[in-house]
Write a structure and sequence with these properties.
The chain is built from eight helices and no strands. It has helices at residues 4-28, 33-49, 60-77, 85-95, 101-115, 119-130, 135-142, 146-172. Helix 1 packs antiparallel against helix 2, helix 3 (60-77) packs across helix 7 (135-142) and helix 7 (135-142) packs across helix 8 (146-172). The longest helix has 27 residues, at 146-172. It is globular, with a radius of gyration of 18 Å. It starts with a helix and ends with a helix.
Length: 173
């Protein structure tokens, strides 16, 4: 059972990072807000239950994102149903409806291109550019070497850039 000081530390961390974990989940489950809330709650419950085993010499952010990553893997292992891409894009447009039309069009193009990446590339791109995690943090979360993460991200972003340029050229013709 966590000590009172640990509970206070965990509560402060929860308040500070619940939105990051929620967004991490939301982008990966097709923008289903209710499911993202449920999974986020499960993740923080699991983290709280095991908080006494957390190695305080490593960043808490890496630990909680590792739990989130593993929880999401388990969620998908038990669930084969996915949201159709068109529906996910419509939801993404609604989420970003406060933004300009040009921004929405750009985001739609990028989401379409990201959806064509492999699952591992897609996850890395979302962790890096949506969740705003560093390569070292991503390496710890995924259990891979930082150099491998850097290389995989470089390849994924090069693919996205090339595909975006091709699509943009087709759209302007």
């Amino acid at each position: 059972m966590p000590q009172k000081a640990d509970i206070e530390q965990f509560t402060a961390y929860y308040e500070k990072h619940k939105t990051s974990i929620f967004n991490y989940i939301l982008y990966r489950i097709g923008f289903n807000r209710d499911m993202a809330e449920d999974l986020t709650s499960d993740i923080f419950l699991k983290a709280f239950e095991h908080f006494d085993s957390y190695d305080k010499t490593s960043p808490l952010k890496n630990w909680i994102f590792t739990i989130a990553h593993n929880h999401l893997v388990n969620y998908y292992a038990g669930k084969k149903e996915t949201l159709p891409l068109e529906e996910a894009l419509e939801i993404a447009k609604e989420v970003g409806s406060q933004n300009s039309a040009e921004h929405n069009m750009t985001m739609e193009r990028i989401l379409k291109l990201v959806s064509h990446l492999s699952e591992s590339q897609k996850d890395l791109v979302l962790m890096k550019y949506v969740d705003d995690l560093g390569n070292e943090e991503i390496a710890k979360i995924t259990g891979k070497e930082e150099g491998a993460i850097r290389t995989a991200l470089s390849r994924a972003t090069a693919t996205l850039r090339d595909q975006y340029n091709i699509q943009f050229q087709e759209d302007t013709l």
